[in-house]
Structure formats: C-alpha cells, structure tokens
Write a structure and sequence with these properties.
The chain is α/β, with parallel strands linked by helices. It contains 16 helices and 8 strands. The structure holds fe (ii) ion. It comes from Calditerrivibrio nitroreducens (strain DSM 19672 / NBRC 101217 / Yu37-1).
Length: 360
C-alpha cells in the first residue's frame, strides 16, 4: 500500500514583498494594533518608526518586555496589556522568542486564565489574529503554532501550543536581518539547520516534509560554506531556509537533540542555537551508530557541496565546544531530555547509556 501522510500550513507567507503593502493588507480593517517585541531589534531596524510614520491613522500599543527566553509571567502580562488596550490585530516582531511570546500573548489576551490551566484545556476563546515578522533566520516560529515558554520555577521549557496559534501572515523581509550581530546570526543558522536535520531524520517525517528539509539543509550548508570562505551569507536565502525548516518541524517536531539543548539553555544559559551547534556532531554520530539510513542523504548533500556541517561547527567553535560542555552534568542533562516528548521522535531507541557514551 502507498505511504499515507498529510501536509498542512495555514500561514500566508510573503517573501521579500514590500512591508508597507503586506502591513496595509493585514491592518486594513483594524484601528488598534498591538506590537509584541523585545527592546532592541524593533528600534535598531527602524520598524517602530516605520509603523508610526506609515500608518498615522492606526493606534499602536507596544509591548516590548519580551526577554531572550520568554517566561510565563511575560506572556501573561503581555496578554493583559493587549486585552486592556483592546487591540484587534497583533504584530510579533523579532527573533523566535518574540514570535513565540507574541503568539502566546495573542491567546492570553482573549483568555484571562492561568498559564497551565489554559494549556491543558482545548476550550478557549480564539486568539487575536497575528502577523509574524522574524528578524533572525533560525526558529521558523513564523511557520508554526508552537510557543516555547520558560517556566523559571521548574527550570524548564514548555511547548505551549494550540491549533489556532498559527500566525495569519508571515512577512519575510531580509532587510530586518541586517542589524543582527554576526555571532547571533550564526547561532540562529545552526538552529535552523538542526530543525531541518532533526525533522528530516525524525520518525514523524514524511515525503512532503523531507523535500522541505533537504532544500533547507542544502541552502544553509551552501551559506555556511560561503561564510567559511568569505565571511558572507545571503540573508534572504537563509531566512527562506529557516521558514522551510519551521514548516518541517510543524509536521515532525524536533528530537532528543533539542531536548538536550533545552537543558544547556535552562541550566547553563547557553544560547539555544549555540546549544544545538554543540550537539549536532554528537547527534549525527548517534544516528550513524544506530544505522539510521537517512543519514546517507545528508552526507550526499554535504558531498555535493564539498562542505560538512561538522567542519562548519569546528571552524566556528574550535575548542570552545569542550569548554562549554566541561561543566555540564551530562547525566542530569540526559535524564531531563529523556523526559521530554521530543525524544519520542528520535529515529532510534534512546537509552541513557547510549546517549551518555557520546559525551564521555
Ligand atoms: Fe530550535
């Protein structure tokens, strides 16, 4: 019998279309607009000024209290602010944190309820429609309904999601990436690569997601090669690759690599994309050791490009990998990861011993 699978994306994606046109369309029937962001990118890119100058007939309500790993109290507070401001539409502007938080704020704005109470209940008021504007090229958050929120008390990252939390529009405008610091840009690129790679290898992958994942990995590797040779990358292509990988994990989820990375971020404060970069070479070895066949396709892409992801990571991180991992309690990290649902999609049977062997 033929393989059965589905593919779904309700997000209308605009690639390099004039922001004024996209926003005019999105905001056309609304007067009160909420904007969720961090403090820096919205000013550095000139986006706040652009909104105020381009749409003088609209009233904007800015909530810029989103931190790098958005917390439960930030999205509850943002939801209250947007509710009190009676906004009709929301623009989420920034990296994955701002987009994830923006989506969560959109549902807490219409549902005045405690975080876990709403998370556990599928009976809720629909969130406020949202347009996502990514300013990094890593998370692909603009393409899915996931909100990764940090619970400080539990020292944990929680995937809050609801079927209605997809952005209505995603606006990919690579000009907004130009103000990104080079190091952060690289970390976000490794995050996008790990989404595509984990999605491709995931137990939940299908032929549709595989095509997107392979193209995403090819674009990213080609750009990492160009970075290695000339320190240059094509931001527009990378942003597209990141959106592709966001659509991939919408169908496949991530795997134990991300779960291990969450521990490095929660406990050691290692930036999310950097944490993934530290883990990618080991994860590939784990898959190879277990005979995961699809690894060959990744190796073929690397051969075609005469460049490998592991070389790229060695190039960029050098012996910092050892330093960054040296203080980590790997047993605790593995215990944490094995309890996350991500590990269920890993393409081999995950055991504590096997994972630990790759960190000795
Ligand atoms: Fe990620």
């Amino acid at each position: 019998m033929s393989e059965s699978f589905f593919f779904h994306s309700p997000v209308k994606v605009f690639v390099e279309k004039d922001p004024y046109e996209v926003l005019s369309d999105f905001l056309s029937d609304s007067c009160r607009i909420g904007v969720v962001s961090g403090k820096v990118a919205i000013l550095k890119t000139g986006f706040k000024e652009f909104l105020l100058k381009s749409f003088p007939d609209k009233e904007f309500f800015f909530y810029d209290d989103i931190s790098e790993n958005p917390r439960i109290n930030e999205v509850i507070k943002g939801g209250r602010f947007l509710r009190d401001s009676k906004v009709e539409k929301i623009i989420a502007f920034g990296g994955g944190s701002a987009l994830d938080a923006g989506k969560a704020c959109a549902i807490f704005a219409t549902n005045n309820r405690p975080f876990y109470d709403l998370m556990a209940d599928n009976n809720y008021e629909r969130p406020i429609p949202l347009l996502a504007v990514p300013t990094t090229c890593g998370t692909g958050s603009e393409m899915n309904h996931y909100c990764i929120i940090t619970d400080l008390e539990k020292v944990d990252k929680v995937n809050f999601n609801k079927p209605d939390l997809f952005p209505k529009y995603a606006m990919l405008w690579s000009e907004y990436l130009k103000s990104l610091d080079e190091t952060l840009l690289l970390w976000t690129v490794y995050d996008a690569f790990s989404h595509a790679m984990e999605g491709y290898l995931s137990k939940r992958s299908n032929r549709f997601s595989d095509i997107l994942a392979m193209e995403s990995m090819r674009i990213i590797l080609d750009n990492l090669k160009s970075y290695s040779n000339s320190k240059r990358m094509d931001l527009s292509k990378l942003q597209f690759a990141s959106a592709l990988s966001g659509a991939v994990i919408l169908h496949t989820g991530t795997t134990i690599l991300h779960a291990l990375g969450y521990y490095l971020t929660n406990v050691h404060g290692i930036q999310h994309g950097l944490a993934n970069a530290l883990l990618i070479p080991r994860y590939l070895m784990m898959c190879e050791g277990k005979g995961v066949e699809k690894i060959d396709v990744i190796r073929n892409i690397e051969k075609e490009l005469h460049f490998s992801i592991v070389d790229s990571i060695k190039d960029v991180l050098g012996d910092r990998v050892i330093k960054l991992l040296s203080g980590v309690d790997t047993e605790k990290m593995v215990d944490y990861a094995l309890n996350k649902p991500n590990s269920l999609s890993t393409p081999f049977v995950v055991t504590k011993d096997y994972i630990l062997r790759h960190f000795s």
